[in-house]
Write a sequence for this structure.
């Protein structure tokens, strides 16, 4: 169980982005965080992964206080994070990144399997550099694959995994999320506006203006979102 | 040959106690071993120290090893090696150099290599440089490479300076005939107070000749690197040069590219980027479980791979 208690985060410019987030992410479940642009969703994900240090509040995972843990410590203890904007590397191949993530050498078959989950042909991509020669969509899918490769991770955090991904790859991704969900051994925390992702969620939290405005089961929250005409939450209902 | 040479050979070439095929091992200015093969003949030069390597057109995917080692301070080795590659030959040349010093005086290797590459011949040239030993004397490697490529020939240079070379001054010049293609991959790592200068001058003289030059460098500690490249497009040709530098600590890099197009159909491009490792790269690898130090090392290793 991941728990955020009264989490606050302020930018270097002094602007308070997270204004007391309280959120519980149950084990083995898929929780979607949605809400209007600029509401603090990405900041929330980065605070969970340790990229941003909370200015106040506590974060617990399985009752351990991880508030002051570094990014590496959080990763080593089971938090995996997929960036919204993938990072490019000159010199590191897709295989390198996946093996770093898996913490072992991977066979070509294993790499193909991981990449096929995000709609890429492994043989075509595994030895390519993860640099600017890849398109935005390709980089995004590889970014997601690096998180899927962390088999020992118990909390997978994805920041808008749908962004930049074509419809066919997105279908594969939904299947991958459903398989993780079925397994129940790992939890998913997904920042998303996408109706198809919300449709497979166990829980949905709405974050707006730096706070959790609503949280409940999919059945409780999704209908209310759909009825909010003009809401920014579901602007991408049908990708 | 002595133990230091054997160790250096293991680092800079494929040495596992022996070489298969033709080879010439240079140790402290002398010959420590030589063998020709049916298609690759190695002979001493008459006018200067050094050798002539003649590669027959019958050589196809054959390898010749010509490593040079300096194993103690007070040695300044100057050698002139000529490579004559016959039309249609296909050869791999492994030319590593290791300089070791445990003393106060300088240890230096200065290799002047000339390549005469025949029509439609193909050359893969692999060169790895390393400096070892705890001596205060400088460890210097100053290679000069002159290349003449005839019609339709292809040469790929894969050069790398691993570590420990106090000072290097690398000069490479090439003249390309019609349809000739030159590919250069250079990787330089400097640390502490080391200095490295790399200077390429390529004349694209023949129609449809091309060069692709990529230099990747990492300057750590207080080290300093200079990169110069001049591509002269004298005919219908394509040229691309790219210099990527990573700075760490107080490292400094200067990159001075030059493009000279003397033909309306010359197409020349240069790219250069120098900077520290992007913070987001470190962070990404930390999210995959590496520490910041491990992440930096992984990024540099990959960059220079």
């Amino acid at each position: 169980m991941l728990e955020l208690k009264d989490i606050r985060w302020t930018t270097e410019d002094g602007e308070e982005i997270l204004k007391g987030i309280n959120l519980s992410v149950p084990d083995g479940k898929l929780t979607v965080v949605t809400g209007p642009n600029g509401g603090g969703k990405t900041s929330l994900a980065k605070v969970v992964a340790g990229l941003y240090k909370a200015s106040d509040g506590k974060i617990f995972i399985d009752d351990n206080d991880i508030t002051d843990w570094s990014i590496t410590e959080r990763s080593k203890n089971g938090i995996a994070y997929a960036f919204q904007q993938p990072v490019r590397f000159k010199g590191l191949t897709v295989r390198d990144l996946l093996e770093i993530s898996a913490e072992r050498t991977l066979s070509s078959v294993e790499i193909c399997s991981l990449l096929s989950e995000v709609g890429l042909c492994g043989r075509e991509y595994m030895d390519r550099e993860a640099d600017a020669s890849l398109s935005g969509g390709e980089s995004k899918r590889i970014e997601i694959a690096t998180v899927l490769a962390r088999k020992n991770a118990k909390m997978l955090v994805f920041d808008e995994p749908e962004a930049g991904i074509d419809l066919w790859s997105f279908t594969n991704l939904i299947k991958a999320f459903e398989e993780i969900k079925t397994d129940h051994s790992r939890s998913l925390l997904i920042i998303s506006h996408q109706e198809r992702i919300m449709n497979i969620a166990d829980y949905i939290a709405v974050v707006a203006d730096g706070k959790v405005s609503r949280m409940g089961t999919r059945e409780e929250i999704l209908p209310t979102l759909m009825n909010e005409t003009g809401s920014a939450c579901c602007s991408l209902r049908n990708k | 040959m002595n133990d230091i040479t054997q160790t250096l050979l293991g680092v800079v070439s494929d040495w596992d106690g022996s070489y298969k095929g033709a080879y010439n091992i240079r140790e402290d200015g002398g010959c420590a071993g030589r063998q020709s093969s049916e298609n690759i003949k190695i002979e001493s030069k008459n006018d200067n120290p050094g050798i002539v390597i003649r590669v027959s057109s019958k050589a196809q995917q054959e390898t010749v090893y010509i490593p040079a080692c300096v194993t103690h301070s007070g040695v300044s080795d100057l050698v002139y090696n000529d490579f004559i590659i016959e039309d249609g030959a296909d050869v791999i040349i492994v030319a590593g150099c290791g300089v070791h010093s445990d003393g106060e005086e300088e240890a230096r290797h200065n290799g002047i290599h000339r390549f005469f590459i025949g029509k439609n011949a193909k050359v893969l040239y692999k060169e790895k440089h390393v400096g070892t030993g705890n001596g205060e004397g400088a460890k210097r490697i100053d290679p000069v490479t002159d290349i003449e490529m005839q019609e339709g020939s292809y040469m790929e240079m894969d050069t790398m300076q691993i570590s420990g070379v106090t000072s290097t001054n690398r000069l490479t010049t090439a003249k390309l005939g019609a349809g000739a293609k030159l590919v250069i991959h250079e990787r330089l790592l400097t640390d502490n107070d080391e200095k490295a200068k790399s200077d390429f001058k390529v004349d694209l003289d023949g129609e449809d000749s091309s060069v692709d030059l990529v230099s990747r460098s990492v300057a750590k500690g207080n080290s300093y690197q200079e990169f110069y490249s001049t591509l002269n497009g004298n005919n219908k040709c394509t040229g691309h040069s790219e210099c990527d530098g990573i700075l760490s600590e107080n490292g400094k890099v200067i990159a001075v590219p030059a493009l000279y197009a003397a033909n309306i159909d010359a197409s020349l491009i240069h790219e250069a980027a120098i900077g520290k490792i992007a913070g987001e790269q470190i962070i990404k690898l930390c999210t995959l479980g590496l520490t910041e130090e491990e992440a930096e090392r992984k990024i540099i290793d990959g960059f220079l791979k």
